[in-house]
Predict the structure.
Amino acid sequence: MGADNPLYRAVLEGNAKSARSITEDELSRGADPQQLVNEQMIPAMDEVGRLFDCHEYFVPEMLISARAMKSALEVLKPHLAKGGAESKGKVVIGTVKGDLHDIGKNLVSAMLEGAGYEIFDLGTDVPAERFVKAIEEKSATVVALSALLTTTMPAMKTVIDELKNAGLRERVKVVVGGAPVTADFARQIGADGYGDTAPGAVNLVRGLQASSA
């Protein structure tokens, strides 16, 4: 477990090929897939977040680690589903209507998946109605909205308004992020929280989930 574990190291160091082969080897030896996630992959991604906060890792390193984590998860997913493994929660994520930027959104998506959440990524240029429909269909408890243009930021409020109209606002936590977005803006539009970095978004979602448990 932890830093001495090959899978932990492969994810932390961003070695996708090793992460995949180690995961396959562990499963062939009868390892518990949920244990691999909880005791090796989630701690590795948490350490990636810590290194980012300490300015030892930057966006490229985070993306590489996220790719390694996804590679291992691809192997584990069928086994997790078969074992009825429960996710930490369901998150719908997307870049709002009019905005085609996705690097930040992809990173947050990968970090949340690495933290054990079930992710439904709607992509970019997502209209409010699609967010609402996905939340209804997937029974998601969190929606994460991204915008990288000041001109598309108002679309975040449109999503919140549509959630209210659909009677869903009380059951879903809304988190927002993106370069021009601020904590003040999040409060103004009635969001539940603002994440300024991908690790920050993960901690935010964890905190919101804990407070509503």
